[in-house]
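Saturday, quiet lab. Running sequence design on the structure tokens for the scaffold JK sent over.
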């Protein structure tokens, strides 16, 4: 009788131990292993961001001081976020416009087939309609040369300007697998060259990584009669920023 009770207790302990072992194994495979894989993926993503920041710093220009890399992943995400954050990009452009006291005419985006990114015009400037001088109004030859608002050549030029897609000097094929970029063309009007320099300095001092690919300047008054418009400086900045996919 006593032997039977001992055998039953031993069997019960063995079953209980096996059950506990199965529970621990299930917890390990269901929770611990996925957490380890997630941590490993985050470490790889952080290493990727650090490598990309080093590459961007090397391309920033000769003679500039290198910014020491931050080990904090949150600081790295401020430089290269894990989302597109298009609304923040637009707000940043608006803030720079206010700080530098310039006028942003339009912003065109190129998301390189990224979801949610389409080219569009931001803060489109109102069309400037100049009245014809009385002398030109009396000249029939001048009236014939003046393009009508619905003229096909004028519409073609406007469509061609609208369809221009901003392109970065960095090739998409050269980017790491998880890294994405978005390029934008910002058309601005400034009173002085110092204001244009201030815009570039503000872009360079942003927390997020922005790269100025090109700057084209010109006088917008060449096709206008108003002398006030001729004194302004128009510029087109092509800027690229980056983000990565988790």
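Result came back. Writing it out in full:
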């Amino acid at each position: 009788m006593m032997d039977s009770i001992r055998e039953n207790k031993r069997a019960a302990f063995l079953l209980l131990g096996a059950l506990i072992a199965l529970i621990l194994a299930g917890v390990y495979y269901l929770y611990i292993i996925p957490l380890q894989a997630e941590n490993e993926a985050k470490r790889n993503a952080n290493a990727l961001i650090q490598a990309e920041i080093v590459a961007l710093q090397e391309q920033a220009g000769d003679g500039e001081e290198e910014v020491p890399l931050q080990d904090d992943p949150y600081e790295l995400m401020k430089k290269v976020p894990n989302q597109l954050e298009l609304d923040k990009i637009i707000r940043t452009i608006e803030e720079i416009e206010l700080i530098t006291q310039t006028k942003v005419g339009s912003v065109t985006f190129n998301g390189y087939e990224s979801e949610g990114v389409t080219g569009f015009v931001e803060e489109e400037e109102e069309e400037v309609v100049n009245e014809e001088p009385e002398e030109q109004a009396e000249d029939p030859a001048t009236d014939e040369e003046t393009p009508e608002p619905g003229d096909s050549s004028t519409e073609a030029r406007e469509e061609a300007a609208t369809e221009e897609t901003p392109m970065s000097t960095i090739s998409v094929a050269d980017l790491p697998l998880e890294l994405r970029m978005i390029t934008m063309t910002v058309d601005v009007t400034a009173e002085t060259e110092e204001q244009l320099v201030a815009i570039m300095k503000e872009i360079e001092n942003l927390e997020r990584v922005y790269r100025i690919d090109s700057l084209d300047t010109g006088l917008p008054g060449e096709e206008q009669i108003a002398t006030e418009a001729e004194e302004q400086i128009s510029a087109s900045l092509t800027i690229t920023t980056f983000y990565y996919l988790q």
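Notes for JK: Residues 2-59 form the longest helix (58 residues). The CA atoms of residues 24 and 93 lie 54 Å apart. Ask whether to fix the surface positions before the next round.
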